[in-house]
Design goal:
380 residues; TIM Barrel; Urease, subunit C, domain 1; eight-stranded mixed sheet; alpha/beta; nine-stranded parallel sheet
């Protein structure tokens, strides 16, 4: 397949006028394409890497926690229509038995989905702080357990791509240091202050789950987790997720975060639940009832309960909020790929990498979605 006459965001995320050739599921060449096969004239269009959502509980009426093949197929089919080429089904704070079922289902279905493909599992909870549990189920909150994690990790064939932790929990240091070789450990749902967050960074944490939300904020005398992340953003490669639906975080706070994190540190995530793509109403999230009104998902007590957005809409949101195009693109492609350690295969456009591609017109409408070298969406 050859994509002709497009503006391609290359490996350095610089726009270049070039043709792009794929062979099988891989990018064969960018520029100087002389092969044969299906060709698309993309005059006036821009080609960027396919979007990656590394933190998504559900959409299209389905949820990772359903632990059914049908749920993951529904999510995959829904996401690819929104420019997402791969994703991490994300679990909640649940019992070991429930998590085992969820993880086993992901492992069984991983290679069968037909839309966006599954990168692995985002394990959000249960090793979090009760006081910052947000919409997680407090009945299952517990201290970090290395043995439990290894049983879950081994049980799904090593598919866990990130695991969350509140660094003030008992056993956090040992957990972080021992688990890092298996997958990144992310600071999340935490009442830690600046110093405790700084310790977690010293121990090896380089990722933060939905920055600003479910954690201590930044004030001039108590900089909190947010202050620790900003303080260390440039010197040790910190990355932080940002839910950019305009509801979880004020646009001004988003702009500040994007500036502080820099081009390589910002990661756009949906953190969406099953109501994404559906109408207002009552939904289940991790065994709790969520009320969705005007697209905002809340528990009965008013706690924000995930989002109903998607990373394509959030990508467009941050552009409206004033984030530079290059950083916005990196925040939904190479940055999440690096966060889950798959950037050697996907996340940018380079010969030899997987042909996960998104083609946009001048108004940022989706024109073509290519997953592993196969056209899945065609609006040309």
């Amino acid at each position: 397949m050859i994509l002709k006459n497009a503006t391609v965001y290359n490996e350095e995320f610089r726009p270049v006028r070039a043709d792009l050739e794929t062979e099988g599921e891989w990018i064969k060449a960018v520029g100087g394409c002389g092969g044969e096969g299906e060709a698309f004239d993309l005059t006036g269009c821009t080609v960027i890497p396919g979007l990656i959502d590394m933190h998504i509980h559900g959409c299209a009426g389905a949820d990772t926690g359903d632990a059914t093949p049908e749920a993951l197929h529904a999510m995959s089919d829904c996401l690819v229509q929104r420019g997402v080429t791969s994703f991490c089904p994300t679990s909640m704070t649940l019992s070991f038995e429930e998590l085992s079922k969820i993880f086993a289902n992901v492992a069984a279905v991983k290679d069968e989905v037909n839309g966006a493909y599954i990168q692995g599992i985002n394990m959000e909870g249960p090793y979090i702080a009760m006081s910052k549990k947000g919409a997680q189920n407090g009945a299952y909150v517990r201290n970090p357990d290395k043995e439990e994690f290894r049983r879950l990790y081994d049980g799904c064939g090593g598919l866990v791509r990130v695991v969350d932790i509140a660094p003030e929990c008992d056993g956090a240091e040992a957990f972080i240091k021992e688990v890092q070789p298996y997958c990144p450990v992310s600071i999340a749902h935490t009442a830690a202050g600046y110093d405790e967050a700084g310790k977690a960074i010293e121990w090896g944490c380089r990722h933060v789950t939905h920055l600003y939300n479910a954690m201590s904020g930044l004030t001039h005398r108590s900089p909190g987790v947010v202050g620790a992340v900003f303080d260390h953003a440039q010197d040790c490669g910190m990355r932080a997720e940002l839910i950019c639906d305009g509801f979880h975080i004020h646009p001004a706070a988003l702009r500040i975060a994007f500036r502080m994190l820099g081009e390589d540190g910002s990661v756009i995530v949906s953190d969406s639940m099953r109501a994404a793509g559906h109408s207002d109403g009552e939904y289940d999230l991790g065994g709790q009832t969520v009320y969705v009104k005007d697209g905002k998902a809340l528990l009965a007590d008013g706690t924000i309960a995930a989002s109903t957005s998607n990373v394509y809409e959030e990508f467009k949101n941050v552009l409206r909020f004033g984030v530079p195009f290059k950083q916005a693109v990196k925040s939904v492609t190479i940055n999440p790929a690096r966060a889950i350690r798959v950037d050697d295969v996907t996340g940018s456009i380079k010969a030899g990498k997987r042909a996960d591609l998104l083609v946009l017109d001048a108004e940022l409408n989706i024109k073509l979605v290519v997953v592993k070298g196969r056209v899945k969406v065609n609006h040309l």
